[in-house]
Design brief:
Elements (H helix, E strand, L loop, with lengths): L4 H4 L12 H16 L6 H30 L1
Helix pairs in contact: 2-3
Length: 73
């Protein structure tokens, strides 16, 4: 039953802990592009571009959901 406790009483991280996403996104981008890259010399640039795309996507989604919750709901 302890495994379900996180879903019933989630922790609030707030803005101070949003920086924990940066290394997680970097690792996801590294693993994905390492598997998909045709040449190893392309990996660093492609990882940086994918990392920025993911970051910008999360910022846009976060802003959209914030506006949705504040002004529509």
């Amino acid at each position: 039953m302890m495994a379900w406790e996180v879903f019933y009483n989630p922790m609030e991280l707030g803005w101070r802990h949003v920086w924990l996403l940066l290394p997680l996104l970097a690792v996801c981008a590294i693993v994905y592009k390492t598997v998909r890259a045709e040449r190893p010399s392309q990996i660093p640039r492609q990882v940086a571009v994918l990392w920025l795309y993911i970051m910008l996507g999360l910022v846009v989604l976060g802003g959209a959901f914030y506006l949705l919750l504040e002004y529509v709901a």
